[in-house]
Amino acid sequence: MTLSEAADRRASIIDGKSIGAAIKSQVAAEILRMRDTIGKQPGLAVVLVGERNDSYSFVRIKMKACDEVGIASSAVELPADCTEDQVIHVVSNLNEDSSIHGIIVQLPLPKHLDGERILNVVNPEKDVDGFHPLNMGSLAMKGREPFFIPCAAKGCIELLLRRGIEMLGKNAVVIGRSKIVGLPVSLLLQRHHATVSVIHSFTKNPQDLTREADIVITDVGVPNMIRGNWLKQGAVVIDAGTNAVKDPNRKHRLRLNGDVCFEEAVQVASAITPVPGGLGPVTISMLLSNTLDSAKRAYTFV
Amino acid sequence: MTLSEAADRRASIIDGKSIGAAIKSQVAAEILRMRDTIGKQPGLAVVLVGERNDSYSFVRIKMKACDEVGIASSAVELPADCTEDQVIHVVSNLNEDSSIHGIIVQLPLPKHLDGERILNVVNPEKDVDGFHPLNMGSLAMKGREPFFIPCAAKGCIELLLRRGIEMLGKNAVVIGRSKIVGLPVSLLLQRHHATVSVIHSFTKNPQDLTREADIVITDVGVPNMIRGNWLKQGAVVIDAGTNAVKDPNRKHRLRLNGDVCFEEAVQVASAITPVPGGLGPVTISMLLSNTLDSAKRAYTFV
């Protein structure tokens, strides 16, 4: 094999930044058209309980993205020691507010609160995170359509679609089964008629199934867990892991690392998302797109 | 190999009839206790639209089973040409009726009716079929509990549990993805920490994945599709197929055949359900058990 052949065999990098930016500009254009036509704009509200630095920073990223495309965003902050009923009261008010089309309850919630009970209260028609069981059930069931699909999972499929990657009849392996990625992406892949296997911490020899997969989507939270020799030659890899790893050479002595050992996988896969710059930017653009869709539905604006 | 060794290697038959009967007698005993203690009994209502012979016969089987255990059952019949609103009106009345703890809308409905819309109206707390998307979503999501799990899927797991078959860490293949068996059983197997692959009509070489499976659950509707050489030695096979096959030697010139080629599979599997007499009787007992659970919840009877 010559050096150039070896280089040819490196996976193409799925550039989430540019795909995310493209979606954002489409969303922005639609919002402009909405404002011009009916004088309305989409509204997103984030409910933030307690003072977690990571949550603050996630909320800031979301609100900044809203600003950029013309979504009116607001955050309702509650103290860490508030009661469940107080949170539910806030969510109920947002349900009633006709200027709000998307409601996010920023997770994780303080441990004394019953998150499932609170998420149940979010109006499924404003549930832009797609975490309401009614939306998850409608996603699972043939012939039904959820109001919203969880953003990161929708982002994975968007990346595959925009790269023209066929799902029908392909073997897909999903590693991890969270409501954020693993569960909804396994349901979405099935909607696209892939043959889906879901791998998790109890799976024996996870590499055996993974090695048969044309499409691998990982959401584990263990840096570099998926090695090059887990992958079939030519597989497409979407890495939803965002693991902070110590790195003395970086600012804050941390860097982001995916679940996939990128440098090995890039030699085997045909296409792969980097971390950062892969799924992340697309996920946030899906949130904007979900909020726009919700406003369009509320105003019957087509 | 001696003849007796060959015989030893035949799968043990999972006798759904006796397991179903055992569950039924447990349900009957609980209902007796309920009547004795609080003077109440569970109530099941079936909504039947149009005059389909197969539906009539399914409804008759369900109502007879209700009688046997002490569930008060009733059927509301509507003409084939009734409107969607008429069906919804009937369902809404049953939702309000405190003597009714389970509501079944017998499927299939006439084509001019929107089944999804009608099933949405069934109160999820009376949805003993488990087909409401809120129940399916709660089944899919970790940390949530549905009010009801679809009876046939619950029956498959009940058979595995009663036979002491370990699911945790086992490879399971589900063939078919209907809301009746495939979808909910794949979610249930995941709850029991099996590694689940879902196979369907677009899957290429379905036998490859199936041959790796410790547990195979089929719900395809194609008689004898799963051959002996699809199975791993020692696999456990649950056959949810009930296919009417022409047979001149039988009454009505028909016999029931599963999706699995039983005579071949029985040589390879370690345990297998026959058709008929496998999943069927357990499914009906799950319906009775769901209805009892609902009445217990309604009357807070423990």
From TrEMBL, chains A, B:
It catalyses: (6R)-5,10-methylene-5,6,7,8-tetrahydrofolate + NADP(+) = (6R)-5,10-methenyltetrahydrofolate + NADPH. GO terms for cellular component: cytosol. One of its GO terms (molecular function) is methenyltetrahydrofolate cyclohydrolase activity. The keyword Ubl conjugation does not apply. GO terms for biological process: photorespiration; tetrahydrofolate interconversion. Residues 14-129 form the Tetrahydrofolate dehydrogenase/cyclohydrolase catalytic domain. Belongs to the tetrahydrofolate dehydrogenase/cyclohydrolase family. This is Methenyltetrahydrofolate cyclohydrolase. It comes from Carnegiea gigantea.
